[in-house]
Amino acid sequence: MPRKRWIVSLHKPGKLLAACCLVFSLHAQTDSPEALNARALSAYKNKDYATFLILEKQIAALTPGDPRALYNVASGEALLGHAAEAVAQLDKLTELHLDFNAEKDPDFAGILKTSQWSEYRDRLAALQKPVVGSSVAFTLPEKGLLASSAALDEASGDTYIGSLRERKILKRSKDGVVSEFATEKDGLLGVSSLLIDSSRHQLFASMAALPFMQNYRKEDAGKAGICVFDLITGKLVRSAPLSVPGEAHTLSQMAENKYGDIFVVDTGSSEIRRLRRSSTELELFLSSVVFQSPRGLALSADERTLYVVDAATGIWAVDVLSIDRTAVEVPPEFWLGGISGLARLPDGFISLQSGAQPNRVVRIRLNAKGDKVTSVETLESNHPSYETPMLGNLAGSDFIYVANSQLNLIDVKTGLFPADRAKETVVLRLPVGSQ
After folding, report:
1. H or E stretch at 28
2. Sign (positive/negative) of CA torsion 60, 64, 323, 395?
3. More confident: 110 or 14
4. Is residue 18 exposed (0-12), middle (13-18) or buried (19+ Cβ within 10 Å)?
5. What three-state secondary structure class fits 110?
6. What is the pLDDT of residues 12-65, one digit of tens each?
């Protein structure tokens, strides 16, 4: 059974087409997508596939371009034996560069031997073909790191790699020598993201207590924080812990302004926090009321705008002074779901879409006002080394990122990690062109 549930589109909702009034009943017009989805699920479970399809079509009309709705319509068509109609919906997903692995979904079993499916498989093969634009920067022989982030210090040429599982930061010198830069003894939890301030010779590490990290204790649950290290001495400069009883916090990507203040995503609480220069307090910048599922952020060139990507509602431009936010318009031909982090370029962003299949790195361009996406270019896709690729950072004209965090190996129920299946960590260097 596929995951038949409502997922809010990352596209700006837009206006409901007037034509819907002629196609669907009055009841369908007044139902919310969530309410329709509940009814669709019930129909699916009762094997009333005709009703399921009708309801999914209504959801798709209310949410133009939403991939899950398109897939569910395809599923309904396949369950009723409508091969051509099912493939037509799957083709729409292919145009969005998405593969939902329908061939392994039992809902499509009845049409797998049709000519329409054979033709669709040929078209899908082009999407599944690896697009490789990067070179291997280096590999780390130590297995089981669950590397989360890589950052290059352009001043020294050294690269730093954070480990979610082993609660440490590795340093790889420009000469290729690997050493431990910081460990659990320095107060590290699972390291989520790294950010380097080369001008101040500082390394920022966001972190969170994760059930699969080494030496995890139940009393660690919900803890998070930021550690700041001196790149020259390797010493801990300051620590900003975040621990509120009964609350879950998971600090992730960071962005720094010219004053040395840090903005950080808290994916655990759906908040944005700020760490001011020299402070040890992670103050609340944007509450969970504002965003549902923030996944990345980046400052504009003038630092007046903080761009935040939300997995549920899209990309938002937040005025740093007034805290007013405006949705960045995303045309329906682009799908920006599954984004993990933003790396700012003058005309947009570089981002990983590790929550989409195939995994890929995209360049997102904005208009001059910065309020509309004008193009989305795939720079790399389905790399042979991919195994849940993770956050990256820009270094000059290159994007440095971890190809295989191996988070996919974790047992989400027990937190156990099969070390015998672990591989060497691969860090990629991807040229992103002119900035």
Report:
1. helix 26-30
2. positive
3. 110
4. exposed
5. helix
6. 223 222 223 323 333 434 578 889 999 999 999 999 999 999 999 999 999 887
Which amino acid, residue 299? L
Taken in order of first residue, the domains within the chain and their CATH numbers are 20-128 (1.25.40.10), 135-431 (2.120.10.30)
Q: DSSP label at 9?
A: -
Q: Which amino acid is at 28?
A: A
Say if CB 337 and CB 67 are below 8 A apart: yes
Q: Collect contacts of 358-366 with beta carbons under 8 A, ≥24 apart.
A: 358/97, 358/99, 358/127, 358/128, 358/382, 359/383, 359/386, 359/388, 359/389, 360/97, 360/131, 361/133, 361/389, 361/392, 361/399, 361/401, 361/430, 362/336, 363/432, 363/433, 364/336, 366/328
Residue 434: per-residue pLDDT: 58
- The DSSP 8-state label assigned to residue 35 in this structure reads H
Per-residue model confidence as pLDDT tens digits over 245-281: 888 899 999 999 999 999 999 999 999 999 999 899 9
Cβ 76 vs Cβ 37: under 8 Å = no
- Tell me if 403 sits within 8 A of 353, measured CB to CB: no
**Mean of the pLDDT values across residues 83-106?**
94
Q: Residues with Cβ < 8 Å from 379, sequence gap 6 or more?
A: 131, 133, 350, 360, 361, 362, 363, 399, 430, 432
Query: Which pTM does this prediction carry?
Result: 0.86
Residues 6+ apart with CB under 8 A from 252: 192, 193, 206, 208, 264, 265, 266, 267, 295, 296, 341, 391
CA-CA distance, 409 to 415, in Å (whole number)? 10
DSSP assignment of 312-324 = TTEEEEEETTT--
Tell whether the torsion through CA atoms of 78, 83, 85 and 88 is positive or negative.
positive
User: Do 401 and 389 form a contact (C-beta atoms < 8 A)?
Assistant: yes
d(CA 263, CA 204): 11
For residue 373, what are the β-bridge partners?
366
